[in-house]
Write a structure and sequence with these properties.
By secondary structure, the protein is mainly α. The protein is built from 18 helices and 4 strands.
Length: 452
């Protein structure tokens, strides 16, 4: 994101700590995505502590995603039309695109997941154990980037274990130790890395972000809404698209079950069945966790990896009917609509989820430019949403000019200590009459007030 200021969640997870403290989850918050924090620390200490290098690991992850999505399409589809079409679909979601430019673990996790998918498909083709290890290792790194990818890791392990039964036409195929060994080794290594951080997060009740209504309402609806940047008047469109997605998913599942019981074991069938099962097992795992343990349903950003899984299994299904004259037309129409939605909503100035941080730099610049006495530190109080990212920005661009902004989650009390307030317009009634409006932003939701 070229011009997006540091967002609240990025600032929350960016703090001074050793590699060991990040690994052991020294600061117990779900905002700390371990692998992202480790890589971010490396880049800002090796180069410069600024917004670009804070987000540099995710820019690299985007490059990896582009490369491996092309390799995956090249491996699965011989026809250039299908390669390009599915490649574009995988990369034309504006909501997912935002996370390539943010210092969070979601983009990093999605890139590792796609790499894992590429290696498991290669493994299914040539049955080299090395590829199985690579697939599991990438899935493990995806989990280490963001713990919601445990759902994908679970799905991948199940697919590896049942793959001999999917492939074989024999009455009683056998599951060899050679198949089980990589799963056991990689899972034990992953558990050694994540058990202690997970325990801390669960104990501190940090997995509070999500929904309790239902998988469709919370996960599917939120992902569709974010993917098309739907405003409140477009809720009917969101539901229509969500129902189409669920309907297509059920239909595709019935079709692959039919081909499986007909004992069709062509490579194109295996690609389709495996891609479908990876998504299906993820959905089942999410629902079962909620039913059995009360874990929240994934919501918007926490379920972003499901977008890639859905698009891929849809592409494999459409490709199966590639010889039909209607299928390329349908696929082309989907790509066209996706491209239109992508470029219509492409934004390099703000994010959907952290829209309130859009003008943070502008506010800081305005305060600095209005301050005539560079020797006196400016006292600024902000709404809690702005305190952490503004502190980060000030420490990098204007060190020593503004006092550290305190994180305060209650309205002002008419004190006159501060030189400026940047607060919600609904809290302005609690401010002393000595403060006058300097400027209002975000459709008047937040205002900068200056002491006269």
């Amino acid at each position: 994101m070229l011009n997006v200021p540091l967002t609240y969640d990025e600032a929350t997870s960016h703090y001074k700590a050793s590699y060991r403290e990040f690994i052991n989850m020294h600061l117990v918050t779900a905002n700390v995505h371990i692998l992202n924090s480790i890589l971010r620390k490396f880049f800002v200490e090796t180069f410069i502590d600024n917004t670009f290098f804070l987000r540099f690991d995710n820019l690299i992850a985007q490059l990896a995603f582009l490369i491996f999505s092309w390799l995956l399409c090249k491996d699965a589809f011989r026809n250039i039309f299908w390669r390009v079409s599915i490649f574009m679909l995988l990369n034309l979601n504006p909501f997912a695109f935002e996370f390539w430019g943010l210092s969070r673990g979601y983009g990093l996790a999605t890139a590792f997941m796609l790499m894992s998918m590429y290696y498991i498909y290669r493994y299914i083709q040539i049955q080299h154990t090395r590829l199985q290890y690579l697939s599991l290792a990438c899935a493990g790194l995806a989990v280490y980037s963001n713990f919601t990818l445990l759902n994908f890791y679970f799905s991948l392990c199940l697919v590896i274990l049942i793959e001999p039964y999917l492939r074989s036409t024999a009455p009683k195929p056998k599951l060899s130790l050679q198949k089980i060994k990589p799963v056991l080794i990689c899972t034990l290594v992953l558990l050694a890395l994540i058990t202690w951080p997970l325990y801390k997060l669960v104990k501190q009740n940090q997995f509070f972000y999500g929904g309790d209504t239902g998988f469709f309402q919370d996960t599917v609806i939120s992902l569709v809404k974010m993917s098309i940047y739907a405003a409140p008047p477009n809720q009917a469109l969101v539901k229509i698209i969500a129902y189409v997605i669920v309907g297509s998913f059920i239909t595709i599942g019935i079709f692959w079950a039919y081909t499986f019981f007909k004992k069709e074991r062509k490579p194109v069938n295996m690609h389709g069945i495996i891609s479908y099962l990876l998504l299906a097992f993820c959905c089942i795992a999410i629902v079962l966790q909620h039913w059995l343990t009360g874990t929240k349903y994934l919501l918007d950003r926490t379920g972003i990896f499901l977008i890639t899984l859905y698009i891929w299994q849809l592409g494999c299904f459409l490709h199966y009917f590639g010889s039909s004259k209607y299928t390329p037309v349908i696929t082309g129409a989907i790509v066209f609509c996706s491209g239109l939605n992508f470029f219509k909503n492409l934004n390099f100035d703000q994010t959907q989820l952290w829209w309130f941080n859009k003008y943070d730099r502008l506010i800081v610049n305005r305060i600095i430019s209005e301050s005539n006495d560079g020797r006196k530190k400016i006292n600024l109080r902000t709404d809690w949403l702005f305190s952490l990212p503004m502190n980060q920005d000030i420490s990098i661009r204007y060190p020593g000019r503004i006092e550290k902004i305190e994180w305060i989650d209650h309205p002002p009390n008419r004190d006159t200590f501060y030189d400026y307030y940047y607060i919600s317009s609904s809290d302005m009634k609690y401010v002393s009459p000595r403060y006058k409006i300097d400027t209002c932003l975000l459709n008047g939701l937040y205002c900068l007030l200056k002491k006269e």
